[in-house]
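job 3f2a | input accepted
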Amino acid sequence: MLYMLISRTRPDLSADEYQALGRMAQAFYDRIPDGLKLHGDWAANDRSRTFALLETDNPDLLTLIQEPFRAYVDMELLPVTAISGWDRR
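job 3f2a | predicted structure (89 res):
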């Protein structure tokens, strides 16, 4: 199943917290867990949030990967479906 993970970094982070967040994010990208596929990662032009398209058959894995980031980032996870146009009826 596909999921869109929308992340908003909290604006009140200290410089040390922001650096810690960066290290955690790099560690995640270096070792994406088995059973999870990252299809792409995008940032809003104003850098206010990021969007990651993830695929997994194990929704519990999504909870697990979000947990270390919760002190630094507000996250929204949405199940999504690929579409290839609009049905005209």
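job 3f2a | The longest strand covers residues 2-9.
job 3f2a | closed
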